[in-house]
Design goal:
Largest sheet: 9 strands, mixed
Family: Belongs to the class I-like SAM-binding methyltransferase superfamily. TPMT family.
EC number: 2.1.1.67
Strand content: 25-35%
InterPro entries: SAM-dependent_MTases_sf (IPR029063), Thiopurine_S-MeTrfase (IPR025835), TPMT (IPR008854)
Pfam family, one: TPMT
Helix content: 25-40%
Number of domains: 1
Oligomer: single chain
Order of helices and strands: HHEHEHEEEEHEHEE
Bound molecules: S-adenosylmethionine
Catalytic activity: S-adenosyl-L-methionine + a thiopurine = S-adenosyl-L-homocysteine + a thiopurine S-methylether
CATH class: Alpha Beta
CATH superfamily: Vaccinia Virus protein VP39
Shape: globular
């Protein structure tokens, strides 16, 4: 799976990438009431311009991405100094208040991200096959503290077929996240040219007593 993503990036097959801010982020982020300076985790971040918006809104951003091409393309898109360092098994590239950790999201450990208070997933869950989605939801829950809030932008399609992107039903989103998060369904967009429908959810990490 990893090799497939690296290859996609090398060959420029990144149809999932948006060059403009995701409308759901702009519409709903402020409604989450995340403290302005809270650090936002962006798992499987690609070179999403949404990270610029979060950073411009005052949030330090921690993106995790397996493809070095994605990270290099992201930082090349802005003329701003870049700092490079190595920490806990990850090569990290920092540009302003955005740090991009090169490596496998599943290798990120809670000790390394203790200060995360919020998260943003657009097209991350849906990049993973079904058994890995279960692991993803559990891993995200381990990384963020009780009370952490975030947005999830997922995809469904009438006839589920081979992904990525994978079609993830609303029932599956609830089944994956409700053990550890409070979920609020926010909106469902119109179908795109391939019949995919994006749905947006607000999530809040539950505390030990629910
Ligand atoms: C569908 S793309 C979405 C990217 C971004 N969230 C966006 O909205 O443009 C999924 C991304 O996850 C990355 N990826 C896949 N598996 C990963 C993993 N285990 N750890 C970190 N990144 C991963 C891929 O390289 C790809 O850039």
């Amino acid at each position: 799976m990893t090799e497939q993503w690296l290859k996609r990036w090398r060959e420029g097959r990144i149809g999932f990438h948006r060059t403009t801010l995701h409308p759901a982020l702009e519409r709903y982020w402020l409604t989450l009431d995340v403290p302005r300076t809270a650090k936002v985790l962006v798992p499987l971040c690609g070179k999403s311009v949404d990270m610029r918006w979060l950073a411009d809104a005052g949030h330090p951003v921690l993106g995790v991405e397996i493809s070095p091409d994605a990270i290099e393309q992201f930082v090349a898109e802005r003329r701003q100094d870049v700092l490079r360092y190595y920490q806990a098994g990850f090569d990290i590239v920092r540009q302003g208040s955005i740090e991009l950790w090169l490596g496998d999201f599943f290798h990120l450990h809670i000790r390394q991200v203790a200060e995360i208070e919020a998260f943003y997933d657009r097209a991350s869950l849906i990049a993973l096959p079904r058994p890995t989605r279960q692991r993803y939801a559990f891993h995200l829950a381990q990384l963020v503290p009780p009370g952490a809030r975030g947005l999830l932008v997922s995809l469904t399609r009438g006839e589920a077929d081979a992904g990525p992107p994978y079609s993830v039903s609303h029932e599956e989103v609830e089944q994956l996240f409700s053990p550890n998060f409070r979920l609020t369904f926010l909106e469902q967009g119109p179908p795109d040219a391939r019949g995919f429908i994006e749905s947006t959810w607000a999530l809040e990490r539950r505390g030990p007593i629910g």
